[in-house]
Design goal:
CATH class of the largest domain: Alpha Beta
Strand content: 15-25%
Shape: flat
Number of domains: 3
CATH topology of the largest domain: Rossmann fold
Radius of gyration: 30 Å
């Protein structure tokens, strides 16, 4: 039987993948990067086309030795770190260490040695995705490796040389960075705008109105003598209040219209971070740490280590046909056919998106949040529920709302006032049955 070695960067990911493969496979973890620029010097040759000089990271020599030893015992090596720049760099560094150079010179026109080291990519850690990837292995994407190198070299040059300049010009201990320096500039620009802003006083007036039948409702002053209401001071506001207080209000117009509210797209990375911050009070770092763990695999009862979501670093709202079909089946069974659009919802991806991966979604909507809740900590559950709800809602029918606008006017006043009340009634919940954009998630 042919033997294969699969190398990933995370022990948790290794455990999850091992569950799906047979006896002919060994899965090992590099535990992150194995090589990097040295910590005690620049590590970039500024006079030789910015050539980086990599060294083995402290503590990774044994990891590399173990990988090389096992690689010598197998027929094929599959490099399976995450499908992004950092993952490609990890794969490349390991491939460099495993480079199979022929021993001695071959005589005559011998058969070229077969390729042994391959790159495999998958967007989710599921049995079908892993086996598909192993059936069609590829090569390391050197453009992606070079993109990671460029970013790493910039980090080092700006960090090392920029920080030294700060020490000389400002004070010791300060640091510069490729990202943080730009962020500081943006913050400074915004602070200057804030300081230059000149506040203008304005007031608004809201009347509480009650008809023959409760409940009372509120209406906001919309216009004065046919013009938009502009109240520049407390004195003007108090004059209007005195004029309308206690007066009888008469309805001038009632306008009703039906409005359809479409669902929002499944999460991309930035939207997930924003929603988790607003609804769950999670920092961006905490969100990504939890998402990484959900992606790499968690112990789910008899299922064992299970990857619960797709890869969490993405700028694409695209989903696979299989995922859309599974979501539609769940919606039909759980909510009814009326909650299902005629065709799967497809969302426009933002301009300049790379679309290398799918949107962030559950690997299977069959694992609803409540069914896995008792296998995970509260924070994991809350984030998974947020992702699950958003994805399922993205494939549901629009909500139908009835929007009503009522204009009313007080009688017997010195000036003509119009107060406006707005109200919305949900006639058909649609996707709102699962996910509300502005509503906090309950845990």
């Amino acid at each position: 039987m042919a033997k294969s070695l699969i190398i990933v960067e995370s022990p948790a990911k290794a455990r999850t993948i091992t569950k799906y493969l047979g006896r002919g496979y060994t899965v090992m973890a590099s535990v992150g990067h194995v090589k990097d620029l040295p910590t005690n010097k620049l590590g970039v040759d500024l006079d030789d086309d910015f050539k980086p000089h990599y060294v083995t990271i402290k503590g990774k020599s044994k990891v590399l030795a173990d990988i090389k030893k096992k690689a010598a015992e197998v027929d094929k090596v599959f490099l399976a770190p995450d499908p992004d720049r950092e993952g490609e760099a990890i794969a490349w560094h390991i491939a460099e260490e495993l480079e199979d150079k022929p021993k001695g010179k071959s005589k005559g026109k011998g058969k070229a040695p077969e390729q042994k080291v391959f790159r495999v990519l998958f967007n989710e850690i599921t049995e079908s995705a892993i086996k598909r990837a192993l059936q069609s292995p590829g090569q390391i994407d050197m453009k992606l490796v070079q993109a990671q190198q460029a970013r790493r070299i910039l980090d080092r040059i700006v960090g090392y040389q920029g920080s030294q300049l700060l020490w000389k010009k400002v004070r010791r201990g300060l640091s510069m960075g490729r990202v943080q320096s730009v962020a500081v500039k943006l913050i400074c620009d915004r602070e200057k705008e804030r300081e230059a802003f000149r506040a203008e006083e304005y007031w608004s007036i809201t009347a509480t109105l009650a008809g023959k039948h409760p409940p009372a409702f509120e209406a906001k002053l919309q216009s004065v003598n046919g013009k938009e209401a502009v109240i520049p001071s407390q004195q003007v506001a108090e004059g209007i209040v005195t004029d309308v207080r206690g007066k009888h209000f008469v309805v001038q117009s009632v306008e009703r219209k039906e409005k359809r509210r479409n669902p929002v797209a499944p999460f991309i990375t930035s939207r997930l971070q924003q929603d988790a911050s607003r609804k769950l009070r999670f920092s961006a770092k905490k969100t990504m740490t939890l998402a990484q763990q959900l992606y790499e695999g968690m112990e789910i009862g008899k299922e064992g280590p299970t990857g619960l979501i797709t890869y969490m670093r993405t700028d694409s709202t695209r989903i696979s046909n299989e995922a859309a079909d599974e979501a539609r089946q769940l919606i039909r069974e759980r909510f009814g056919a009326e909650y299902l659009p005629a065709t799967p919802n497809v969302y426009k991806t933002q301009k300049a998106a790379q679309e290398a991966h799918e949107a962030i979604r559950p690997t299977s909507v069959g694992r609803d949040p409540e069914s896995v809740k008792h296998y995970m900590e509260r924070d994991h559950y809350q984030l998974y529920k947020l992702i699950w709800n958003r994805f399922v809602a993205s494939q549901m029918a629009p909500a139908v709302l009835e929007v009503t606008r009522v204009d009313s006017a007080p009688q017997g006043t010195r000036q003509a006032y119009i107060f406006r009340a707005n109200g919305t009634v949900v006639k058909f919940q649609g996707h709102l049955a699962v996910y509300r954009e502005g509503k906090d998630t309950e845990g």
